[in-house]
Amino acid sequence: MSAMAVKTVCDLQEKKRRGEKITMLTAHDAAFGALVDRAGVDLILVGDSLGMVALGYDSTVPVTMAEMIHHAKAVRRGVQNALLIGDLPFLSYQVDHKAAINNAGRFLKEAGCAAVKMEGGAPIAATVAAVVRTGIPVMGHIGLTPQTAGQLGGFKVQGRDDGSAERLLHDAGALAAAGAFALVLECVPALLAQKISEAVEIPTIGIGAGPHCDGQVLVTHDLLGLFERFVPRFAKQYATLAEQANGALAAFKNEVEGGVFPAAEHSFGPLVEGIASPADK
Ligand code: KIV
Questions:
Q1: Looking at 14, 67, 119, 186, which residue is catalytic?
Q2: pTM tops 0.85
Q3: Does 72 score more than 50 pLDDT?
């Protein structure tokens, strides 16, 4: 197998210039980090979706820095090639610039991430600029921002009317001017996402934002059919692994209860006194 080079922020900007699509997926532990990395995606996000798909919270709001760092370190151990991004959780960057810089820095120093992501538009542009000035690459995230979904009236498509579309265009420009290296556009009408992607030089990565973005991201649990509580309309399920897992787990229970597992090939030594097991030779 030929060794691939580790992806950089500059590679993404080159991809946009060449018109090549950028791919990003989430991972929350080493096993998924390795699987997603082997697929060859450009970016792996240790998303605060962690809270819902792995920690059992009802939203991303309760997720803490300690939880994010713990999981980012695990993902780091599984990833060799993709650019690894740590998602700053709610209230880890909004209070003041010092906290934002310290928490962003923890993802690099403690977890080996190459960049961080923050939710919010023009109101957080100064924070983005402060973190970027420290030498930490920042990805923006606008449109539906789950950490503040309550303020947006729930988990709804953003930018449907002229006023909010203008605001999103302005947010994208403000984040690009602040030095963000890329922007996630979540739940934005396809034509508005196209307009934003054309308006900014940095790559846009869409999730529920149509086909005109410079790249696409999905939560890996959604793509694999592993998160059964709900499936967002924008998430294509490429597999139904929860269903397969349910079948396998029930089969284990039934085989143990029925005396079928473990068989000779899973055991050591004869199963019956004096009769050698062929599997043990
Ligand atoms: O937390 C997350 O997984 C995200 C993606 C949906 C972009 O922010």
A1: 186
A2: yes
A3: yes
